[in-house]
Every structure is written in C-alpha cells, then in structure tokens.
Write a structure and sequence with these properties.
Elements lengths: L1 H27 L9 E7 L3 E3 L2 E3 L3 E8 L3 H32 L4 H18 L4 H60 L4 H17 L2 E5 L5 E5 L3 E5 L2 E2 L1 E5 L9 E6 L2 E5 L6 H37 L26 E3 L8 E6 L10 E6 L3 E6 L5 E7 L2 E3 L4 E7 L7 E4 L5 H4 L16 E4 L7 E8 L13 E6 L4 E5 L5 E7 L4 E4 L2 E7 L5 E6 L8 H7 L14 H41 L3 H35 L2
Antiparallel strand pairs: 1-4, 2-3, 5-6, 6-7, 7-8, 9-10, 10-11, 12-19, 13-18, 14-15, 14-19, 15-16, 16-17, 17-18, 20-27, 21-26, 22-23, 22-27, 23-24, 25-26
Helix pairs in contact: 1-10, 2-5, 2-6, 2-9, 3-4, 3-8, 4-5, 4-6, 6-9
InterPro entries: Flag_bb_rod_N, Flagellar_basal_body_rod_CS, Flg_bb/hook_C_dom, FlgK, FlgK_helical
Main location: other
Keywords: Bacterial flagellum, Cell projection, Cilium, Flagellum, Secreted
Length: 637
C-alpha cells in the first residue's frame, strides 16, 4: 500500500508539473502575435482491485490541446481582408485628395490669373507690360498642369511599386507556408508551435488578399487567394508577380506562375490591399489623369481658337498661345494596342471638338469584314464608327486615323483621347505682341438660321480687295449648292455665285471655314479693319471664363477641374467611413478569437496558484509515503 501511495504521489507531481509547464508557456506567450492558448487535459489512471475493492492509482496528462476555433479564425481573416482593403483605399484616396486640394489649387488660380490679365488687356490692349503679364499667367497655368500630371504619374509609379512589394511579400509567405506544411506532415499536424506560425502567416496574408484555407489529411493546409489563385498546394508553393500592362505598359498586371505556366489574374477580385490598390489605380487615378488632360485640351483649344479669330499688334491673324491640341507632345498615350492583336494597324487619335470630350476611355474593336465599334468603358455604350478613307468617325469629339497597316478580325485597342495632354501643354508664344486683342467685325444676317458658324483661317492685308470699314463685303452662302455670292457695302453684286469645297471659302484676301447644319442661304458681312486700340477679341477671350465650353456645353474650364476634385474628395470621405465600419467588424471578430484562444493573464495566474498547490500537495504525499516506509522498516529491526 505504501508503494502505491508513492506512485500515486509521483503521478500527481508529474501531472501538476505538466500543468504548470503549460500554464507558464501560456503566460510567457501572452503577447506573442498569433499564439493560441494551450490546455493540458488531465485523466485518472485505471483503478486497481485489492481485497475486493477498487483503489485509484493516480493521474496522468492525457493530451495537450491548442484552443482553436476554425469558424472564428475564418471570420477574423475575412475581417482582416476587409479592414486592410478599406485602410489602403483610405490612404490612397487621402493622398489624391490632398494632391487636388492643396498642390492642385494652382490650376484654378492660374486660370483666374489668366482671365484677370485678359480683363486688364481689354482696358489697355496696346500695353506691352500687360501683354507680358498675360503670357506669364498662361505659362504659369501650363506649368501647373504639367506639375499636376507629374504628381499623378508619381502616384501611378508609387502604386505600381506597392503592388510589386505586396506580391513579393505574398511569395515569401507562400514559401514559408510550404516549408511549414512539410514539417507538419511529419507530425500529422500535431506541432502546435508550427500551427501558430502557420496561422500567423495566413492572417498576415489576409491583409493582402482574400484567403481560402483548405485543410488536408496530411496535416498541411492548401492556400488559395481570392478563391481562384492557388498559392500553396500541400508543400508546393506557387508564385505571383507583376508584368507590364496591356495595352498600357505603365499600368502593371499581376501574374500567377506554376512551373512553366503563367496566367494573368484580376487583382480587383482578390480584395485586401492588392484589390484596393488596383481598384484605386484603374478606377480613380487613371480617370483623374484623363480629366486633367481634358482640362488641358480645353484650355489650349479655347485660347488658340480665340487667337485665330483676332489680330495681333501687327494686324496679322493671331497665332497659337498654347501647344496645338493635336501636336505630338499633346497626343502621347491616346492609343494602346492589345498584345493579342494580329494586325499591324498604326492608329492616331485627332481631337476635333474639345467640347464633346468626356474625359473617358474607350475600347475600339474590329470585326471582319468592316465593323468598327467603340465602347465607352465607363458607361458601356457601344457606338458604331464609320470608315471614311483611312479615318474612323463617330467618336465623342475625336476621330481615329489609320496612319498605316491594317486591322485583322478581333483586333482591339484602348482609346484615351485626353491622355498625355496635361504633360504636353506648353506656351508656344514668346512675343507679347502676338496676343490677338483686336478682332474683325463679322455680322450675321438678320434672316440667318443661327446654325452656322464662321471661323477665319487667314487674311492678307496686302490684298487690295480685303474688306475694311467703308468697303465691307457681304457673303451669301448656299450650303446646299455649296456656292457663295459676294456683295459690297451698298448691296451691289461684286462676284456672282461661285462654287466652293466645304468647309473652306477663299476670296478677296482672306479664307474662312463654314460650319453649318442649315439648308437655307446664310449671310455674313466682313470688316477686317485693324486698330491697335481695338479690344474686341481680348473681351471675347476674357469672357471664356464663364463660357460653357466643356462636356457638351455643361461645364466651364474651371468646372472640369472642380468636378474632378469634388469626385476625389467624395471618394476620400466614403473611404474614411468605410474604414470605421470595417474596423468595427474586425474588432468584433478579433475579440471573439481572443475570448477563446487568447491568453487571459488573470485566469492563468489563478491556474498557476492552483497547480502549484496541487504540486506541493502531491510532493507532501511522497514525503508522507517515505515516512511510512521508514517507520515500517524501523519496527521490524
């Protein structure tokens, strides 16, 4: 009986020692990220029969378990993905909002300064100092647009770098998980330390993308990203990476590689930081770039058109202040051909009407034998295009020119009419005398339909027939027969009806374009008298500040920028609200996991005292058993 007592005490000491070890490990790892609380399950040894009775024979630690709730862990991963996505969106939208509201405020200020200068010029149209100020303001506006585009390009590069950095980290995690899986296979998934490391890595992975975990019978876990991309299969790790964008190389894509096979994947469906960065770049940043480019095209076209309708200080027709809207420097990036194209068509996009531009992107597709369709990426509206020679007509303010090569069935291009304009805009005029403050007097006939516009192309002041005050000329234009008849100031016929090739008429020392939808005869009287004190064209240019020149007559130049700024600000605010909601959900999931798997120091401290007392009591039993044996041996000597 004494021997049994000693064995019982020994098992109690060993069991208490194990309980103390588990409790101590829990306390030591209370602040270890990803650690799951462990518990030692204690059971009784089988009873022994002695003299018709059953006596207990002690205790043992039957199992050490890791407290883990698969449902709670999955809920936490989902919460982590959502909150990481929301936080990444908030950071990027905050940066863009600050860019438009702080750095970008020089753009509307530049427009205001330019219009203020034109108002001053209207008061003193021959003042060289004021003319210099106007050119200076124009240069400041162009520079502000250049700088905004440079900052947006910097945001594009930074976002691409962040995407590349995330893919590198995902690959590192994938390799580590593959190694852990190999080790877990050796222990059939019983190594709790490895399981904690595995869960910590999976939890980190869920920051970057939605994660699906597939337990295997071998004790390993396969990992999928976004429900479609396999990252780890057993002990085999795949790889993801980035490659040049298609059709625009500077907009990188994400790839998934397994062996020699590489696939392009859609990160916007993966969630997490990766999905947030892609959605920000493709849905917000690119659109902001295009709308800033739309503004640059509107500015250049509005002032260049106004210049072309006035006279400079020498009496010549005004020349461009800004870079021409179809100059190669303003047209960079308007067309992107997809890598799957088999044709060799070389395309060029020409801006025909800046007021009709939407600041959007379009997909151009060709279906043999001759179907060309333009799809608005933002709205999904499909527009059939008409091929006139080598020109495709029907776009929103632009036409597409096939400069060389040919389409093949299935070829596809992305068209961005306003791309690159903000980077390419410059002030071309260097001589302040070139500002066309004076203007011709063009009077429309009272019976005109109102559907005809005249655009002066050139004048020759050496031509003796050029119409001046007292010798004005009136042109009656028949847009159906494409003829024009000229009368002098007294109504006397100067030249009988003569044919012209639309839209240009050249006669009596000047030429002009007739833009009309009328079917009736239209009449215009011309007077090209020039005076240095004439301010009529300067007044017209100053009035451009209030003119609805953009978005089909719905916006002023300033409205275009303010509209983009408002959209960005709204998205930034929405992102901030989304973060609050996501963090609340994540906190709830985290607290649930902690309530089950986390270490409660108060509880562990209580356990420590309890198991210490049990250890001491068992040790006391051993002492008592030893004393009994000593007494027994002494009594038989």
């Amino acid at each position: 009986m004494g021997m049994d007592l000693l064995n019982i005490a020994r098992t109690g000491v060993l069991a208490s020692q194990s309980q103390l070890a588990v409790t101590s490990n829990n306390i030591a790892n209370a602040n270890t990220q990803g650690y799951h609380r462990q518990v030692a399950e204690q059971s009784s040894l089988d009873n022994q029969r002695l003299g018709g009775n059953f006596f207990g024979s002690g205790t043992y630690i039957s199992d050490v378990k890791r407290i883990y709730n698969d449902y709670a862990a999955r809920e936490l991963r989902i919460g982590q993905t959502t909150v990481s996505e929301a936080q990444a969106t908030q950071i990027k939208m905050g940066e863009l909002d600050q860019l438009f509201s702080q750095i970008g405020k020089s753009i509307p200020q530049g427009l205001n300064d330019l219009f203020a200068g034109l108002n001053s010029l209207a008061d003193l149209p021959d003042d060289i100092g004021i003319r210099n100020n106007v050119l200076g303001s124009a240069g400041h506006l162009a520079s502000s647009l250049n700088q905004m585009q440079a900052h947006l390009d910097g945001q594009m590069k930074q976002t691409n770098d962040q995407i590349a950095g995330i893919t590198d980290r995902i690959n590192e995690i994938g390799n580590e998980l593959g190694h852990i899986n190999r080790e877990l296979m050796k222990s059939q998934g019983e190594d709790m330390s490895l399981l904690d490391k595995q869960d910590a890595l999976i939890q980190e992975l869920s920051q970057y993308s939605q994660v699906n975990v597939i337990p295997l019978d071998t004790g390993a876990k396969s990992i999928m990203l976004g429900g479609a991309v396999m990252l780890v299969s057993g002990e085999v790790s795949m790889a993801i990476g980035t490659t040049a964008g298609d059709p625009f190389p500077n907009e990188s894509r994400v790839t998934s590689s397994a062996g020699a096979q590489t696939l392009i994947i859609d990160p916007s469906q993966m969630g997490g930081q990766l999905g947030a960065l892609y959605e920000f770049r493709n849905e917000t940043l690119v659109q902001a770039q295009l709308e800033v480019g739309q503004l640059a095209l509107g500015v250049a076209d509005a002032f260049n058109q106004a210049q072309s309708q006035g006279f400079d200080l020498s009496g010549a027709l005004g020349q461009n202040i800004f870079t021409d809207i179809n100059d190669p420097d303003m047209a960079v990036g308007r067309v992107g051909g997809f890598g799957t194209n088999t044709g060799n068509a070389n395309l060029r996009v020409n801006i025909d009407d800046t007021s009709a531009l939407t600041g959007g992107s379009y997909d151009l597709t060709f279906t043999a034998p001759g179907t060309y369709e333009l799809t608005d990426i933002n709205t999904g509206v499909v527009t059939p295009l008409t091929l006139n020679g080598s020109q495709l007509d029907g776009g929103d303010g632009f036409s597409i020119h096939i400069d060389s090569g040919a389409f093949v069935d299935g070829d596809k291009f992305e068209i961005r009419p306003s791309a690159g304009a903000a980077a390419g805009i410059k002030v071309e005029m260097t001589d302040p005398k070139g500002i066309a403050a004076a203007g011709p007097k063009i009077t429309a006939g009272t019976a005109n339909s109102g559907n005809t516009e005249i655009e002066i192309l050139s004048i020759d002041r050496n031509n003796v027939n050029l119409p001046l005050t007292g010798s004005e000329l009136t042109y009656q234009i028949d847009p159906v027969a494409n003829t024009f008849t000229v009368f002098d100031a007294s109504g006397t016929l100067v030249s009988a009806a003569a044919p012209y090739t639309p839209p240009t008429i050249t006669s009596n020392g000047f030429s002009f374009d007739v833009n009309t939808t009328s079917t009736s005869t239209e009449s215009f009287t011309f007077d090209f008298t020039f005076a240095e004190g004439d301010n009529s064209n300067a007044v017209s240019m100053a009035q451009l500040s209030e003119a609805k020149l953009m978005n089909s007559g719905g916006s002023t130049l300033t409205d275009v920028y303010e509209g983009t700024k408002l959209v960005v600000g709204g998205k930034a605010k929405a992102a901030s609200v989304a973060v609050g909601s996501a963090e609340a959900v994540f906190t709830q999931a985290y607290n649930r996991v902690q309530s089950e798997s986390g270490v409660n120091l108060d509880e562990e401290a209580g356990n420590l005292i309890r198991f210490q007392q049990a250890y001491q009591a068992s040790a006391r039993i051993m002492t008592t058993a030893s004393e009994i044996f000593d007494t027994l041996f002494s009594s038989v000597r």
